[in-house]
């Protein structure tokens, strides 16, 4: 008992001491390396980077890049697009909804930015840019998965909503277009912007308007097979508003070759870490350029071939040279092998002097694509003030000039560009189907690596380019090119009722052969 009293007596002064300075514990309990509140500038930058980079290797490279026959592999495990195996590669884009790694949680970030800046009337430009970028993130997600959580998405932190309902893609598209329209009207050059936190435009309000109208044009054209009248309305509105037609208005994110992976171009980082690590010999995922792609570039005498593609040559088997000679370029057939082919080293790979540079830029939305959309609009009679032939020529020129952004190895002379157009003139006298095929196939080339997601969406909408499916034994699609990404199994566990309702609404399937609403 005596000892107990002594302990109490000794503890009393300590208690008084702690009581007198308890306010200090609040400051001591704050991590000095983390922000205590939302900093919209920081989160906007993160949302930009995460919005474009989510699951690049699994999705844009191994699933879309192979199925759109830009790339091929001899192996089976990474053959999501080559042999239509391993659907799990397509589930990774769902990480845009949550996560902490690179490319994850883009939706949460942009939602937090919107919530923060929406309370200050002076932040109209910040709010508008955030809403436009939210539309960009969600249009890519819904184009990959169809019906997804949209209106309730990203509200786990703010509203404790851990089971968001799935919205129809039709409703999502209607709201995305509304968001773009309202955001464009709200932009005000006299008000503050994100400034340097805006990696694409540095806060330039005029360029953000063109970006939003260009995205509106893309989304409007997506509706051609399900509601041509509505598509026409939005396309005409976008064209009249002013879209990205010139090099100076391209939306570009710059990267640097730094020690931090986050500062590097994620495409180069992804390709180098999964396949094209060392010259000569095998590649990790067994990847090379596809025969369909290389053959097309060679047949049309496209000067981009020598910018994009190399073959490793060696005289002693030890020292290799990246050779861009046209005659040497050769693509590997899709789904042709299940073991390392003897002639593997003769197949073409991405050029390390352009595509595989950590400091390579990313063209988020460029004038090559927008001019091609304008050409299509002209063919449909939805655009005045230009002809399809003129817009097509402008698109080709822009698509070739943009490689100069990748350094001296990407420069294509004006003489070569003009020679290509002379050899491959626009089919003014052709049928509508022939003109559409030429426009959309050019998009397949011009958007290569820049935006494989858009190539995939455009192919599903138009059917171009015409690609011959593979039918490798045991494939998951019955020998059909994949048409949708697979929503992760975890949704059936954690959000079962909403997931099953959406699956039933979309034909009862959740496979690589499922289709989205606008894909007819």
UniProtKB/TrEMBL annotation:
InterPro entries referenced in this protein's UniProt entry, alphabetically: SusD-like_2 (IPR041662), TPR-like_helical_dom_sf (IPR011990)
Source species of the chain: Larkinella bovis
Entry keywords, A to Z: Lipoprotein, Signal
Residues annotated as transmembrane: none
Signal peptide positions on this chain: 1-24
Pfam families: SusD-like_2 (PF12771)
The protein, known as: SusD/RagB family nutrient-binding outer membrane lipoprotein
